[in-house]
Design a protein that fits this description.
The complex is a heterodimer of chains A (50) and B (195).
Chain A (H helix, E strand, L loop, with lengths): L2 H8 L3 H8 L7 H10 L4 H4 L4
Chain B lengths: L4 H22 L3 H18 L9 H24 L4 H28 L8 H34 L7 H29 L5
Helix pairs in contact in B: 1-2, 2-3, 3-4, 3-6, 5-6
The chains are: A mainly alpha (50), B mainly alpha (195).
Chain lengths: 50, 195
Amino acid sequence: MSQQALADAVGVTRQTIIAIEKNKYSPSLEVAFKIAQVFQCSVEQVFSYQ
Amino acid sequence: MVVRSGTLRWLGSSLVMVNLAMLIYWGWGTLFLLGLGFGCVLCAAGWWADAIDLSTEVPLLVSLIGVLTIFGNYFYFVFTNPDDIRAGLLQFVGAVVLLIIIEVVTYSLVAAGGSGVETDERDRAIRRAASRWGYGVLVAGVWVLIGQLVLDVVFERVVLGGYLTANLLFLVFITAELVELLARLMYYRLGINRA
């Protein structure tokens, strides 16, 4: 899945997806749950607290 | 964006070369410095087209360079010619008009690029965080000016006239705006988690 496709599915810009991947931005709970929903897995499988 | 990175690089370097030549030939000039700054921005956007968010970071950079150059020139004129109020007002009107034209052209180019200026929660978070920096500078500057005015009243002296005080207040506003723009750029570059 491309960054743009994920961004469109979640409702954010592609730059935000890039920032999340590079650990430059922590998304809101809503966006985190939407990303997990897109990949059909739980939030813990996508994100971890450091 | 529709504009290719090669075109941006070509446009930017041409602008830099032409304005550098004019700056060397004719000396100091706001327009040449502006051209030089925009040329550098376009060139940088062309080189790092994949890493830079053209729809948000380039307009911010253009605003930063525009405000810095145009109002830098204005304040230099005002504080070196404090008695020439009429010319100062004309410079002020010219600076505002020039800045509006630059902002309109920049945002029109970005909109014409096709990507559209979309904002999401990250943009709003960055704007909020940067506003705090700008607000801090604004409050500090206003308090310093108030202190200066109070000291003038207490010691019955006039260090600054009304014209210069108004311009100092305006300088505080512009500095706060510059700090906010710079903070937004830093947050976009370094990330809002670290900056």
